[in-house]
Design goal:
InterPro entries: A10/PebIII (IPR005055), OS_D_A10/PebIII_sf (IPR036682). This protein is mostly helical and 102 residues long. The protein contains 7 helices and no strands.
Length: 102
């Protein structure tokens, strides 16, 4: 589903990126793509993105890296919302370190 989304265009343009972030944080309206993304976050965390394509997994890594490096306050809010106990951060610790250093 998300294979045709231009991640570079979204990540390089706050006007496009911020609405996605606000949607996933329940702080704003959700466009159809953002709403669908939000609906799959919990499942992806729980299953290690089992239903994701390789391209989607790579895209997820790129988005997380961008948020950590350029939108860290939003990243912290997302972690607080979707991983309040830190269990997924622990589960994906190695991958997060790789993403941070990419």
């Amino acid at each position: 589903k998300y294979d045709n989304v231009d991640l570079d265009e979204i990540l390089e343009n706050d006007h496009l990126l911020i609405p996605y972030i606000k949607c996933t944080l329940d702080e704003g309206k959700c466009a159809p793509d953002a709403k669908e993304l939000k609906e799959h976050i919990q499942e992806a965390l729980e299953t290690g993105c089992a239903k994701c394509t390789d391209k989607q997994k790579e895209g997820t890594r790129r988005v997380i890296a961008h948020l950590i490096k350029h939108k860290n306050a939003d990243w912290q809010k997302l972690k607080a919302k979707y991983d309040p106990e830190g269990k997924y951060a622990k589960k994906y610790e190695k991958e997060l370190e790789e993403v941070k250093n990419a």
